[in-house]
Amino acid sequence: MTERTSRLGHRPSADVPPFLTVHTTVVLLAALFIGCVGGGLTFLSGSPLAAAVLAGLTGGGASVPILRSLIR
Predict the structure, then answer these.
(1) Least enclosed by CB within 10 Å: which of 20, 25, 32, 46?
(2) Would you say 67 and 31 are in contact if contact means Cβ atoms under 8 Å apart?
(3) H helices of the chain, where?
(4) Do the beta carbons of residue 7 and residue 1 sit within 8 Å?
(5) Where are the transmembrane segments (predicted)?
């Protein structure tokens, strides 16, 4: 086994692009945070759990296009 191959015999390739770019990761993490905060606040205001989950999903999903244009 050479030093450049892994245990399975695959060589690490430097030309493989990453699964997600840094921009996409930041946008999705920010949307997740916004959705969690929105859903948590909705739940704490006395709404049922299903309504809080729906509010969180809606807030997170609606924030993705806005965050995509704001974060560059």
Answers:
(1) 46
(2) yes
(3) 22-44, 49-70
(4) yes
(5) 20-43, 49-71
CA distance 41 to 20: 30
Provide the sign of the torsion angle of the four alpha carbons 45, 49, 51, 55, taken in this order.
positive
Rounded Cα distance between 33 and 40, Å, is: 10
**What pLDDT sits at residue 62?**
97
Q: What is the dihedral sign for C-alpha 7, 9, 15, 19?
A: negative
- pLDDT at position 16 is 86
Distant-in-sequence, close-in-space partners of 1: CB < 8 Å, separation ≥ 6: 7
pLDDT, mean of each 10-residue run, the chain (72 residues):
59 80 96 98 97 97 96 85
